[in-house]
Amino acid sequence: MKARPSLGGKSVSSAQTPAEHSIEETIEEVLAGGTRPPVGRYRLDLATGEWAWSDEVYVMHGFEPGQIVPTTPLMLSHKHPDDRARVDGVLRRAAETGQPFSSVHRIRDAHGKIRTLAVTGQGRRDPGSGRVTELFGYFIDVTETHREAAAREATASIRASAERRAVIEQAKGVLMVVYGMAEESAFDRLRQASNLANVPVRDIAQTLVHLFSGPNVTVFPTREAIETFLEHPVAPGSGD
């Protein structure tokens, strides 16, 4: 097997260029203040298309260190189909300009597992020709971070949905008591008011509930007041 290009695991050369030092400072900022996700280094030789990966990058892609020789076609083959063209474009622009770049994308590792990686880096130019000859930087496995963020968003969405349902249930209860109607009929009245005002049912329900539970309310609104509201509904924040 052809010897693999290596960055020696976590070791970092003491003779860093200013650009390398700048990237490391950026990574430290990304990782500051939270759980530190796996981080690996890479270098890409633009002349040969071969990558040098640290051990961590092999593991992120589902390989044992040194198991394969990383190349651009191999790396792109592991990108999620929906992200592949975008990542290819990022690398091509970086190879042309040498400017710092970053991307967050999904991969399918050698075991079929979907991971989310962030990649950051920039180009190195040949002192003589001025051409960009190498890209270097870091891969960061942010799979768990994204999973936790998705879980938080889902929890917030569920909580918000429950709050919306709660205010609709309250408004339905008011109409059921005031009009002596069934639950379905109460919801139909809310929906009719929603259509009149061209706002969501939850906004109509919120305003109706506010009629009898607002901070300055001391008496329950009359049936006539509720009827007036349903016939001429006012959405929250309208100023009326």
The CATH topology label of the largest domain is Beta-Lactamase
The CATH C-level class name of the largest domain: Alpha Beta
- State the CATH architecture of the largest domain: 2-Layer Sandwich
How do the strands of the widest beta sheet line up side by side?
A: 2-1-5-4-3
CA gyration radius, whole angstroms: 29 Å
Describe the sheet with the most strands.
Answer: 5 strands, antiparallel
| Secondary-structure element series | HEEHHHEEEHHHH
Please indicate the percent range of residues in DSSP E strands (runs of 2 or more): 15-25%
What is the number of helical segments per DSSP (H or I, 4+ residues)? 8
Low-confidence stretches: 8-24
Task: Tell me the structural class.
Answer: alpha+beta
Terminal-residue CA separation: 78 Å
Task: Give the number of domains.
Answer: 2
The backbone outline, from C-alpha atoms, is: elongated
Please explain how this structure is put together.
The chain is α+β, with helices and mostly antiparallel strands. It folds into two domains: 18-141, PAS domain (Beta-Lactamase, 2-Layer Sandwich), CATH 3.30.450; 156-231, Arc Repressor Mutant, subunit A (Orthogonal Bundle), CATH 1.10.10. It is 49% helix and 17% strand. The protein contains eight helices and five strands; from the N terminus they run αββαααβββαααα. It has a five-stranded antiparallel beta sheet with strand order 2-1-5-4-3, sandwiched between helices. Strand 3 (101-108) and strand 4 (114-125) form a beta hairpin. Helix 5 crosses helix 6, helix 5 (143-179) crosses helix 7 (201-213) and helix 6 (183-197) packs across helix 7 (201-213). The relative contact order is 0.10. Residues 8-24 have low confidence and may be disordered.
